[in-house]
Specification:
The structure holds 2 protein chains of 2 kinds.
Chain A lengths: L1 H18 L9 E10 L10 E4 L5 E3 L5 E7 L1 E9 L2 E10 L3 E7 L7 H14 L6 E5 H6 L9 H5 L5 E3 L7 E3 L7 E5 L2 E2 L4 E2 L4 E2 L6 E7 L13 E7 L8 E6 L3 E11 L3 E10 L1 H7 L9 E15 L3 E16 L3 E19 L2 E18 L8 E21 L2 E20 L9 E2 L3 E15 L4 E15 L2 E6 L5 E7 L4 E19 L2 E12 L1 E4 L10 E4 L7 E13 L5 E18 L15 E17 L4 E16 L8 E2 L6 E9 L5 E10 L3 E2 L5 E4 L2 E4 L7 E2 L3 E15 L2 E10 L9 E6 L7 E7 L4 E9 L1
Chain B lengths: L1 H18 L3 E5 L10 E8 L6 E6 L16 E6 L4 E3 L1 E2 L4 E3 L10 E8 L2 E8 L8 E9 L2 E9 L10 E8 L2 E2 L4 E4 L26 E9 L1 H15 L13 E2 L3 E15 L2
The chains are: A mainly beta, B mainly beta.
């Protein structure tokens, strides 16, 4: 069966390739290809537009700055343009295949905002991808922040269809999906836990990041592995023209970045680091309940890139971060990610671009506990490792076709817990079973500009997931008791799943100012995070698909309408979607997944559905820019064993979600910005009564998620003062106020006996952030 | 392992509290009140009876903590050896047994018929793990020394898992913290975990008289206490829900056949 599908897939592919070449009678056609780079830094430019002047023909550069454009023999003027850079006109005489290296000058600062909006306009109206959002670091830099710390993932939460997982939290929900259904990529490699300090910071140092693209649904076939979204974050490459450095001091962290050429024009490096300074403040306290504790994190980004001749380019990038929380002689918690990858770009021919990636991704955490304050603690370690290899091709087939195809393989290993207990702790060394999975992917897709107005993107992704022993695998009865245990030897196949994921998107330009788009896609997820609370903890358990946990599958259809004013000053868009999710995972009541090796005994399975409308209005020009986004949505689950099998609202269901963002730049020196967010409180379980059993008051819950948290809203303000701005030196001071009107948003609500009246019970909300003013200082040279 | 995770979560909140501007506030929520549900609280132990079964009901969250009992039910208790008795209705929802004697290793059955409703539960009394003594143990909690009670016993080295529940009574008041443990990661080891309270006033005080009851319970009762703890806490967004009862028929509460030993200590 599977073999047949593969054969079919390849025959289609080859047919498509053979079918595409040019009509026999047409005049000779040649290809102009090359790379677009920024002149000042030598870095490649992602999504630069290369268009033929006076025609509607054009292409955009890929994530490595490469483009290829095939045209009939002749003379052309190519206009090369990109965000934040000055457009450039290049005259070409196309009598044979040509190779170009375009370097764009930095755009004037005052124009920056306008140019940013131009990129947004490109995104919204042209092309075919629906539900795609792009944030550049310059937009993120203008937004107000919590505690003076800019954050890539918090900026994302201001976009339509994206909801925050909690106050000040970097976790987010896309279109009603859970937080673990977002694939977070740094330079193409998965980051499993993108949070520092229990989620109040993301792992992405803003000094090292240049660009984020979020696919909320209709992702192209080269992406996959998670149900809801892909956040594709790209690191800066490093300047190959001159040395530069940035240093920032905020209230909680200090960070710095250094970059420069290894060999001018050919190779460069970048190193960025960040660390907290909370410990210094804690240790300075005179209170022994505070000054012996540690709270902190650090992270390090590094990247090297080498041009090896005109056709080859090598990138090495890495990230390493660690968090360390400890309460003196009581407990400690450390966690962090380490990722490394090697990418090799090769221009096979004028129309064929190849990229090969080798990568590893590790996530680990460690709990340290001191039994009765003894000196020798026990530790519990958990880790996850991915080893992956990927080969991708991009083929500029001509006559409007750009094809991407490739294959990839990831070997996953998960060690859920290893208890190391020295003598005296009263515990025995214990190791939970490791799990092994091998994920293989094959995909092909074609973006076809069928007519001037109609663009089609279609493709297929095939995901094969294999589970291997050794270890015990179980069959469970309805109550979650193991009724059968099967032992597998190391390397013995346990089960495998094969899922085709079709992807289809259509874009039709109704006229010069409006576009209609539609899409259907299927996504499959084989790595799942088990979290039994709304707040995610670093110790939440990752698990692979097994004989009991089936691959999660989502089918999504969406429809969008995009319109702009004639002067392109305003754009607005309306997107609507419906998503059906299979094999969703939830917990039995009172489950605690950390407590058992046999975690599946605590799980229940069912399906989910999410639908909604997202409205966005943007102002792109003038001293005041910004956007307003409104999402009306619903996300529900139906799980056997919960609420008698009825549909119920998922935790991430927020009916209304509003973001208003304004950025005002009266002069080059000052930037003022404000954002206001509002969303319906999360669905949650509250008691509908109480009783007494075992000498204790017990709350009675009539159903799962039958109530709502109070509505959340917050206003943030920020002012940036560019103190000095010279060619090689600049200073910047940022003042921010988070939660300016001091709204006491509930982070969680719990129930207790009234401490002043033993005959009563009461509800208590915990508020994490009231009004929080902050200041940060940055130097660049 | 329960203890380990509890440490972690408590510690996390504690740490978070150290640097955040966290504050708490009592709020009034619009909570529904469901129609009354029967609550059965039944116990049989290896100590001499009389054993009691209490039948009460639910009330609204914002109502006072008084739970009237229901009399008039037919309550029958029997064991796997064939001994059985119908419990005497003492009024106020209290029913007592007089002849049955709890024995370790025995499985017990309880049925309650109340008008049209009937409820049934079963529970097996495990073999006792001896509670040797209880001593006072100072431990650090958030850098502060707190006084706790440490039960001394040796975890059996199998076969199977042993499950325990500890009830701590301080000067006659039951500590509301639910201490439920097992020996899964401590087979053959002497216990080292002390009873750390989930309470703001987490310490014992000089002069306190502390009674610690150690119960050896079966797996369903362990699941009951574990899920009751989750329901009771409900903090941090953990999905709360009703404890997993061993009653069929829709009653809340539990029927527990357990061993029971009490040791006391006075805090100097």
């Amino acid at each position: 069966m599977k073999k047949n599908i593969l054969t079919f897939f390849f025959s289609c592919l080859s047919l498509l390739m053979q079918g595409l070449p040019l009509p026999a009678v047409a005049q000779a056609r040649y290809t102009v290809s090359g790379t677009v780079r920024a002149k000042r830094s030598g870095e490649n430019v992602i999504r630069a537009t290369v268009a033929v002047s006076g025609q509607t023909v054009g292409v955009t550069t890929n994530e490595y700055g490469f483009f290829s454009l095939t045209l009939p023999e002749g003379e052309y003027s190519l206009v090369v343009s990109a965000v934040g850079l000055q457009s450039q006109m290049v005259a070409v005489e196309l009598r044979k295949n040509l190779s170009l290296a375009v370097s764009l000058e930095e755009g004037a600062t005052e124009l920056k905002e306008v140019v940013v909006s131009a990129a947004d306009r490109d995104r919204k109206l042209s092309g075919v991808q629906i539900g795609t959002e792009r944030l550049t670091i310059s937009t993120m830099r203008s937004l107000p922040v919590l505690l003076g710390e800019r954050d890539v993932l918090k900026s994302v939460q201001l976009l339509p269809g994206v909801a925050s997982a909690g106050d000040g939290n970097t976790g987010f929900y896309v279109r009603g999906g859970a937080a673990d259904q977002n694939l977070i990529l740094l330079d193409g490699t998965t980051v499993y836990n993108p949070s520092h300090l229990l989620g109040f910071f993301s792992t992405f140092n803003p000094d090292a990041v240049r660009d984020l693209t979020l696919y909320k649904g209709a992702m192209p076939p080269q992406y996959g592995g998670r149900l809801s979204s892909v956040a594709d974050i790209r690191m800066n490459e490093g300047n190959n023209q001159g040395y530069h450095a940035t240093a920032t001091a905020g209230l909680l962290t200090v960070s710095g970045e250094v970059e420069g050429p290894i060999e001018k024009d050919r190779s460069s490096f970048l190193v960025a680091g960040r660390t907290t300074r909370i410990n210094a403040a804690l240790h300075a306290s005179g209170d022994t309940t505070i000054n012996r504790n540690d709270i902190g994190f650090y992270d390090l980004n590094a990247k090297l890139n080498f041009a090896l001749g005109r056709r080859d380019h090598l990138y090495v990038s890495g990230y390493y971060g660690r968090d360390d929380l400890s309460v003196y002689n009581q407990f400690g918690l450390k966690w962090g990610n380490g990722i490394a990858n090697l990418r090799w770009n090769h221009v096979v021919g004028a129309r064929l671009f190849s990229n090969t990636t080798l990568a590893i991704s590790n996530y680990s955490n460690q709990i340290t506990g001191y039994v009765n304050s003894s000196k020798s603690p026990y530790t519990v370690d958990a880790s996850l490792n991915d080893y992956s290899v990927k080969q991708e091709w991009e083929w500029y087939a001509g006559v409007g076709h750009t094809m991407r195809f490739g294959l990839g393989s990831i070997y996953h290993t998960i060690q859920p817990a290893r208890l190391n207990a020295p003598p005296g702790t009263g515990l025995n060394d214990t190791t939970y079973q490791s799990r092994y999975g091998w994920e293989n992917v094959l995909y092909a897709g074609d973006e076809w500009k069928a007519t001037d107005r109609l663009t089609l993107s279609y493709g297929l992704r095939l995901t094969d997931f294999r589970v291997y022993g050794g270890g015990n695998f179980y069959h469970f009865d309805a109550a979650g008791n193991a009724k059968d245990t099967l032992h597998y030897r190391s390397g013995q196949p346990v089960v495998n799943y094969f899922n085709p994921e079709p992807r289809l998107a259509i874009g039709y330009e109704l006229d010069d100012q409006s576009t209609l788009k539609a899409s259907y896609n299927r996504n499959v997820q084989n790595v799942h995070l088990l979290t039994n609370s709304a707040a995610s903890f670093p110790t939440d358990r990752w698990t692979l698909t097994t004989n009991n946990i089936l691959p999660e599958i989502a089918d999504q259809v969406s429809l969008g309408y995009y319109r702009e004013t004639a002067d392109r000053g305003y754009t607005w868009s309306l997107e609507t979607y419906y998503k059906l999710m299979q094999h969703q995972i939830d917990f039995r009541t009172g489950a605690n997944p950390e407590l058992t090796d046999m975690v599946e005994s605590e799980l229940l399975y069912g399906k989910g559905r999410a639908y909604g409308v997202e409205l966005e209005l943007r102002k792109n020009k003038g001293k005041l820019t910004g956007w307003l986004s409104y999402t009306l949505s619903r996300s529900q689950l139906q799980i056997g064993g919960i609420n008698d099998g009825r549909w119920y609202d998922a935790t991430q269901d927020h009916t209304h979600n509003i973001s208003v963002v304004g950025i005002y730049k009266p002069n080059p020196k000052w930037t003022f910005s404000a954002d206001w967010v509002y969303y319906t409180g999360a669905a949650i379980s509250y008691p509908s009564g109480k009783y007494e059993a075992g000498g204790r008051i017990v709350y009675y819950y009539a159903e799962r998620n039958g109530y709502r948290m109070p509505a959340y809203h917050r206003l943030d303000l920020s002012a940036t003062d560019e103190l000095k701005k010279k060619k090689h030196f600049s200073e910047e001071l940022v003042f921010s106020i988070y939660n300016a009107y001091d709204r006491l948003n509930a982070y969680f609500i719990n129930f207790r006996q009234d401490p002043n009246d033993a005959t009563q019970t009461q509800a208590v909300k915990t508020v994490l952030f009231g009004i929080v003013p902050s200041v940060a200082f940055t130097i660049k040279f | 392992m329960q203890k380990i995770v509890c440490f972690t979560l408590c510690g996390l909140f504690l740490t978070a509290g150290l640097f955040l501007t966290a504050c708490t506030k009592v709020i009034k929520l619009d909570l529904r009140t469901v129609a009354n549900k029967y609550v059965i609280d039944g116990n049989i132990t290896d100590r001499p009876g009389p054993y009691t079964v209490k039948i009460s009901g639910t009330t609204g969250f914002y109502s006072p903590n008084s739970f009237p009992g229901f009399s008039g039910a037919v309550v029958k208790l029997w064991d796997a050896a064939g001994d059985s008795e119908v419990l005497a209705d003492k009024g106020g929802g209290l029913y007592t047994a007089s002849s049955l004697q709890g024995v370790q290793g025995m499985t017990y059955y309880l049925s309650v018929v109340m008008g049209k409703d009937s409820f049934f539960a079963t529970s097996t009394m495990p073999y006792r793990v001896n509670l040797d003594s209880v001593t006072i143990q100072p431990v650090l909690n958030g850098g502060k020394t707190v006084i706790t009670a440490l039960p001394h016993f040796v975890n059996p080295d199998g076969p199977g898992t042993a499950y325990y529940l500890f009830n701590q009574t301080i000067d006659g008041y039951l500590d509301q913290t639910i201490y439920y443990w097992d020996n899964a990661y401590a087979m053959g080891q002497p216990n080292t975990f002390s009873l750390e309270r989930n309470s703001k006033d987490s310490t014992l005080h000089s002069g306190d008289t502390v009674q610690v009851e150690m119960q050896c319970i079966d797996k369903p009762m362990y699941d009951y206490w574990k899920s009751m703890d989750a329901a009771a806490i409900g903090a941090g967004g953990a999905f709360p829900g009703n404890p997993v009862t061993n009653f069929s028929g829709g009653a809340l509460g539990y029927f527990s056949a357990h061993t029971s030993q009490v040791r006391g200590v006075r805090v100097r």
